[in-house]
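User: For my dataset I need records formatted as: sequence, then structure tokens, nothing else. Please produce one.
Assistant:
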Amino acid sequence: MLKDYVRAQTVDEVLAALQKGDARVIAGGTDLILDLQAEKVSAEILVDINSIDDLQNIELVDGQIRIGAAVTHQQAAESQLVLDSAPVLAEACRSVGSLQIRNTGTVVGNVINAQPAADAAVALVALGAVAEIKTENGTAYQPVEDLYTGVGKSKIDSTKQLVTAVQFPALLPNQGSAFIRLAQRGALALPVLNVAVVASLVNHKVEWVRIVMAPVAPRPLRAVEAENMLRGREVNEQNILEAAKAAAARANPRDSALRGSGQYRKSVLETLVKRGLSEAFNKAQG
């Protein structure tokens, strides 16, 4: 049963409050409150981080875009810095739920909730984002793609740890991105499929590319074989098609009453990856 609600003013206050007992960090709370009501999780103390100024910023630091833990999806979607230098994240954030959810739920919370199809998390993995994690013992950094232990299960323990920010390189002029989403018509729930692509080109050849697909595994899934296949190759229709086939072959979507059969989604996935690669490459070429 909830006994206290702490509105922390500093990160140190958050960490101190977490040491007092059965406490959890809350920012947007769009998932946490429902989980508390359903008794999926428990807490005697909620530690609100929304009054901590440092956690509300979107800023560029040494070529890295840094997004604080209290930044909402709507703030990220409207940020000129994100629109200019990480448009794949802006597009993903615009796809999250309803306007009310986007104005409340946070980008970092989308990661900690650990749903493999969470739109912002898929884009962050494609951007190579790293999470900044604070505990009473200091600060650690870990790639977002490594924070998943299963569907809805995160390595982050929000009763002891605070993810203060995620950060990733701002895209350069020779780099492009794309976010492709397939969802039920008019639905505000998680997507049937989504794909995020970030690519870098040099002289019309692929320097590197990151292809992330969901929900086709317990976490946002990198199509590593397809990425390696494209590296150093010319940008053309045949190479894109071969990479899309390789990416879809890596996926293993489950049958779902809401999202459709695994076979159906795997067949559609190839088309989505092809579209994502074509769009990202076109943007990288200017």
